[in-house]
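BUG: 3D viewer hangs when loading the predicted structure for this chain

Environment: internal workstation, default settings.
Expected: structure renders.
Actual: progress bar stalls at 90%.

Input used:
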Amino acid sequence: MRTAFASALLSACTVLTGLAFAQQPQSFPKVTIAGSAIRTMKAAATGRQMDIYLHLPAGYDRENTRTYPALYILDGQWDFKLMDSVLGGLVYDKFAPEMILVGITYTGENPDYNGLRAMDLTPVADAHEKGSGNAPNFLKFLKTELIPFIESNYRADPKRRVLQGSSYGGLFTLYTLFSDPGVFSAYICASPAVTFADRYAFRQEADFAKYHKELPAKLYLAVGGAEGLSGPVQELMQVLRSRNYKGLKLETRVIEGERHAGNKPELYNRGLRFVFAD
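Structure tokens produced before the viewer hung:
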């Protein structure tokens, strides 16, 4: 039978062992995304330090003459990891080709992502968002700095550029489409914030339609069926279908039962499949 002294000694040893373990935590290597790297660059057009997340196809070094599509991912801090997974499944199932992933985000240990994106991804100033309306400069950064950097350093096919964004990123995606549609060949637009600035996206599209009957691009536009933006985005879908823009390949979808963030895995999967269907 265990004595009281032995029980007390065992308890003390257990406490000391726990303290020693707590004071000397084990160190483990960090998980990384294979084939990925981060490049940092100063965006002259916006004055901001940017982190660019890059993922190259598995056979990139072996097939040294092959060019690849490039997917430019807005809000890379959130969606780059997701797209690495989504694309991996689509490549395996032969629904999409291998491509270069370019995640766009901000440098620093604790950047204010919400505040920065509210400035750079919004096309006009709005009193509800401090510093908003910097999309023209952000688009200039993409056109004159980031895309040339990618295409001069990596074998990215300039005829197969795709822009992807959600929420404010989706709003910026629409802004780019109707400001300079030829910058990208395809656009994946997720739950765009079309109600921003008194429905600016609707006004921009209407102005575009006054002077353009053609829109040579692919557009995948989708929204969650259970999110607040569902009604307004579906209204924009109807407007675009009614325009019958020559050259526009349009697919729209409502992701039933999903809200603003949870729609992304299915939405991006379907979007990439549409963009690379032929």
